[in-house]
Amino acid sequence: AAPWKAPSLEEALTLARSAGAEAVDAIPLLAPVLAYQRGDTNQRYPLSVMRELNESLDELVRRMTPGDCIRIGQRLRAPRLAEEGDARQGWVLLAVERLPDIVSGTPHDFARLAVLSSHRNGRIRERALLVLDEEHGDDALPFLLARCVDWVAKVREVAWASVRRRLVPASASHFVASLPLVLRLRDFRRVRCAPLVIEVLDFLSNQPDALKSGLEHSLPSVRHASWDAMDERDMLSATHALRAVRDSALARKAGRYLSAHAADASPPLRQRVVDALADSPAPELRLSSLLLAERSGLPDTTERLRRATLDPARSVRQYARYHLREA
């Protein structure tokens, strides 16, 4: 192989400053720098540069969403990464024997291993997963899940075994945070992950409090995935839907659930459903609240129609005006 040529100081600093971009855009720029951390000090960057690079990589990995764990692998294996000169070739040609130079017991090892778990070389991915699993606990879960669909059987086996070992109550919240990735595994055709997904959902079904907490997670993708998992396992109730209908990410799913179950609800609960739908950010749900109020014969239906004539959504205003004229 051709000798590796480290990027210039100016290029390295430019890569580090790219941390302001999205993780999936910036990490492929920073990853090749890892290939130059060699035992020979003449091949190393100045400490000030490496400190900036390490901090950037740590921050980017912390910001990665579950979906990023799949996308980053696709970006790191992109053919163009091998076509941008010697600065990238070192990363592409990285040998597993050089891992001790890159991962050497520093606080930055987790971020480096997370990136290496998506390397082009299957032996490097396998070794990175083993160390992540052994030394970094549940923080490694999204990266383990991402490799459950790896095209190399040995890497998949390591990932599946590691995920299964973590199916314990103490790890339930981490599985909830990774639910978008868990459900996504069913979409990959090259590997049949349905049995593993069923195991994870069975496990979370026995940890209902952890699964319910996903409906209030800070990431909309996790709230969506938690709703879908609870719906799939018949764990939803009107109480969950009444809370979720005010969430802009879940409003439509929760509104459809409430509309479908309102007919069988008690009058007090039906009143709460109508009120919740009326406060929804989704126009079609505010319209549903008027329909349900009329069908339920609520005494304040006319007043609701009058208020709806001022609704921001044209469809709601037109419905209210038409029915007021009819009345």
The first-to-last residue Cα distance is 84 Å
Note the main sheet.
Answer: none
Helix content: 55-70%
Average residue-wise pLDDT: 83
Q: Which residues sit in consecutive blocks of at least 5 with pLDDT less than 50?
A: 1-6, 38-42, 82-87
Strand composition percent: under 5%
| Structural classification | mainly alpha
Number of helices: 21
Please compute the radius of gyration using only Cα atoms: 26 Å
| Number of extended strands | 0
Principal-axis shape equals: elongated
Helix and strand string, N-terminal first?
HHHHHHHHHHHHHHHHHHHHH
Description of the structure:
With 327 residues, the protein is mainly α. It is built from 21 helices and no strands. The longest helix has 17 residues, at 47-63.
Write the layout of secondary structure elements.
Layout: H1 9-17, H2 23-30, H3 47-63, H4 66-76, H5 86-92, H6 99-102, H7 109-116, H8 122-135, H9 141-146, H10 153-165, H11 172-177, H12 179-184, H13 194-205, H14 208-213, H15 220-232, H16 238-244, H17 251-261, H18 267-278, H19 283-296, H20 301-308, H21 314-326
